[in-house]
Amino acid sequence: MGADGLVVLTAGAGDLAPALVAATQDPDHPPVLVLDPAGGDELLMATRRAVSAGDVRRGDLVLSTSGSTSRPRAVVRTSASWAASVRPFADLLALGRDDVVGTAGPPTSTLTLHAGWHALRVGARTAGAGGRTPPPDSTVLHVVPTVLAAVLERDDHPRVRTAVVGGAGLDPRLRRQALDRGWTVVEYYGAAELSFVGIARHAPGSAPEDGFAAFPGAAVRVRDGLLRVDSPYVARCRLDATGAPAPVAGSRWAGVGDVARALPEGRFVVLGRPGTVLSGGSTVLVAEVEHVLRPYAPAGVEVVVCGTPHERFGEVVTAVVVGAPDVPADLRTAARALPPAARPRRWLAVADVPRTGKGEPDRAAVARLAGQRR
Questions:
Q1: Which residue has better confidence, 312 or 51?
Q2: Residue span of the structural domain in which 303 resides
Q3: Residue 202 belongs to what H/E stretch?
Q4: What is the DSSP string of 243-262?
Q5: Are 62 and 79 in contact (CB under 8 A)?
Q6: Predicted local distance difference test score (pLDDT) of residue 353
Q7: How far apart, in whole angstroms, are the C-alpha atoms of residue 292 and residue 206?
Q8: Other C-beta atoms within 10 Å of 310: how many?
Q9: Has residue 346 been placed in a domain?
């Protein structure tokens, strides 16, 4: 703890969740910063300035997280905003003291960190933070889709009963593989700033429903194609490099700019961030193109859409197929269902792409890579 009372937790060789649980036992605890190594001194100094200014205070968590361009940023929330979701999330998972919640990936990732913190808060065990895949004795997996795919390929996790998947959209074929093994699949939509927003629980033998329902305690709406939420789980603010706060919600409703589509009975589909490609006078929404193409990609293959420079049109829609030696014919066929301006004019097949700390494609880097491979 520094002279200003700030508790700093940094990634080491293992799980940060036990230290975070210990630091937040008292609701009026000193402010706690979970520092991603990528943020370094910049985020530490920004947080210290915010503490001095009174913008970060007792009971607060400051979580460093990477955005779609891998630039670290800090999100400030109260530990109470996480604690409010402990019971509803545990009920959805039927999580108990005999469970081992297996995670993987960076210990400072909000997905990994919250999974471990939540498990310990309800008396379960947690293991695997910092590794490539969860431990074989896991009973509940809490992972991103790429890690779930790796577990399903290995077939060496005999005790799993539930797979919790967040961080990115889940390929329906991966969901089906998990269900066919008798696992319950719980998908959720959320963000570091919003925590839980939507939930979808699929039991073996049942027909999966489309989209998400609102997470218990959250009110969700789609306005002008963008998703907004009002809930007790929303963070208070973000911090920039100077330590200046920027509110997450300008009013009652908060969002991170994700495009969504409303479904009947209050459910919704999340399409992703509203990146655009300006091609020949037409504005093409990247999320819509990916939404159409994604179901036709082979298992384990990702499709990342971006714009690349073109002398005549300014930009053209480019589909980067990740994890396949060639562009599958089914993808090219599926693209014909898109409006002419939205159909990819360039296709690239690559083994992998640069990724963020959460394992998601780094979209800015992908666009640069695609632009270079003309």
A1: 51
A2: 275-372
A3: strand 195-202
A4: --EEES-SSS-B--S-EEEE
A5: no
A6: 92
A7: 25
A8: 16
A9: yes
Same domain for 286 and 260, yes or no, is: no
Considering only residues 283 and 100, tell me which one the structure prediction assigns the higher pLDDT.
100
CB atoms within 10 A of CB 204: 13
Domain count, the chain: 2
Contact between residue 136 and residue 21 where contact means Cβ atoms under 8 Å apart: no
Q: 332, 330, 279: which is closest to 309 by C-alpha?
A: 279
Residue 199 in contact with residue 92, Cβ under 8 Å?
yes
Q: How far is the CA of 323 from the CAs of 292, 300, 373, in angstroms?
A: 18, 7, 17
Q: What share of the chain is helix, strand, coil (3-state, %, to 5)?
A: 25, 30, 45
CATH of the domain at 288: 3.30.300.30
Q: Is residue 123 one of the residues assigned to a domain?
A: yes
User: What is the Cα 325 distance to its own chain's centre?
Assistant: 27
Beta strands in 16-81 (DSSP E): 32-35, 60-66, 72-78
User: If pLDDT is split at 50, 70 and 90, which confidence band does 38 have?
Assistant: low
